[in-house]
TrEMBL record:
Source organism per UniProt: Thermomonas haemolytica
The protein's name: CRP-like protein Clp
Compartment(s) where it occurs, according to its Swiss-Prot or TrEMBL record: Cytoplasm
HTH crp-type domain location: 160-233
Residue stretches making up the Cyclic nucleotide-binding domain: 26-146
CC annotations in GO: cytosol
Length: 256
């Protein structure tokens, strides 16, 4: 096992500017005593290659994680080897919380690209949070965001129309990118079409057709994994199942 890397706050401020946990070490209200508490939580920056598994189903809870670079997917694998994608985790988003209740991970996390992850030892994090109220509030907020993502996934799967699921996915991804300070209307998808299909409960061909339709209708522009949102209002309307009423006449599809 590698030795923990001492916490360098100056380097952390530079490298984790997009992290959802950045407010834990950078807020103006944190005094020297609180910083001393925070220094006991030692992020270990681990490099991973695309396809590397960070944790597996059944692994004990040792830490929660934040990707400082790259993105991850969490998946459940059936006994037959079929993979169901449960979520995607962008830089700065906390994940690994699935093990907090039972003490064991109920899924596995896989790097979608070359990545670097901060490990936040859970026991130490909980101890420090009990002593630093601002840290505790931040952790509760982030756990709430994680629950929101789970709810959003249920909402996606509840949509009957494939076009709604695809539009809702793209709209939600853009909003999450905005939250971590990245462009919400022009981005590179970290995941493949097949992984999107497994997340949305669709087949690959349906997702490809859905992207093509949004492209042809002038709602988005797609080039490989590059997506530009050209008409955010139309995308939101499509996500709500109201595209026929809300799209401008030139962007409505004729029946048949």
């Amino acid at each position: 096992m590698s030795e923990p890397i001492p916490l360098d706050l100056a380097r952390l401020r530079r490298s984790c500017v997009e992290c959802s946990l950045h407010a834990l070490c950078m807020p103006a209200g944190v005094d020297a005593q609180d910083l001393a508490h925070l220094e006991r939580v030692v992020p270990r920056r681990r490099p991973l290659a695309r396809g590397d598994v960070l944790f597996r189903t059944g692994d004990p809870l040792g830490a929660v994680y934040v990707a400082s670079e790259g993105s991850f997917k969490t998946v459940a694998v059936t006994p037959a080897g079929e993979e169901h994608v449960l979520g995607f985790h962008l830089p700065g988003e906390l994940f690994g919380l699935d093990a907090v209740g039972s003490g064991q991970h109920r899924c596995e996390a896989v790097a979608l690209s070359d990545a670097r992850v901060c490990e936040l030892p859970f026991n130490q994090l909980a101890q420090v949070a009990a002593q630093v109220p601002s840290l505790q509030r931040q952790l509760l907020r982030i756990m709430g965001q994680s629950a929101d993502l789970d709810h959003d996934h249920v909402d996606v799967l509840a949509r009957r129309q494939a076009s709604e699921r695809i539009a809702l996915f793209l709209h939600g991804l853009g909003e999450r990118l905005r939250r971590i300070g990245r462009p919400a209307d022009d981005f590179q998808l970290p995941m493949s079409r097949d992984e999107i299909a497994r997340y949305l409960g669709l087949v690959l061909e349906t997702v490809s057709r859905g992207f093509s339709r949004l492209h042809e209708d002038g709602v988005i522009e797609v080039r490989g994994r590059r997506v530009r949102i050209l008409d955010a209002r139309a995308l939101q309307a499509a996500a709500s199942g109201c595209e026929g009423d809300d799209l401008p006449p030139q962007r409505r599809r004729s029946p048949g």
